[in-house]
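Page 37, top half.
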Amino acid sequence: MIGRKKLEERFITIAEARELLERRRAEGMEENPEEPMFYEAKISLEHAEKFSKLPPEKAMELKERLIGLFEWLDERLAAKIVDIMPGDYFDIRVIFAKESYMPGREEAEEIIKLLDEYRSLD
């Protein structure tokens, strides 16, 4: 990594990662059609295709809605919630198990209600 530096850092969902990797594969096809991606990128893309639950646009929208709904929810946790799409209060408790804040049952129900709006899209 000589000569490279981190320009920015942000947390993204698996769906957003899939979109970035697909874009990189398309660029790689133009540069080298025989080997458009490194092995690690191929494996990452396969994983993202298998486990992403929403289209990238909807995943970003849901993440932003979650962050806007709860002031205590950061981008990292919102992305994790979108990736996992928990179905009940106990699933949400697992996500927040090592966090300093544990949402109450009412907050968890609000999160689940919002996620239910997006479940039919996967």
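Page 37, bottom half:
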Amino acid sequence: METIFEFVNIDKSQNLEAFTQKKLNKLENKYDWIVRANIYFKRDENQKPNGYISEIRLSAPGPEIFAQSNENSFESSIANTVSDLDRQCDKRKAKMSTH
């Protein structure tokens, strides 16, 4: 799976990329039909106490799969976003028919 990271209003972080990649690798191992992941990290000071926003778009057969989370840290935001994606991928897998 190809991963593309974008940082909006924050500095690039290797630790954050590594943490996210580790979480996404679990999805990739579980769902081998995921082609690409676009990950966006945003910081919004106006949303107290949260404001650490992560968005992930997965390219897969059919429509894109999207999830977003706004938490008090990027780590918890990524964990929630990947959990939502896992749920959506599970539903997509159930709908896929094998011919």
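Margin note: The longest strand covers residues 36-43.
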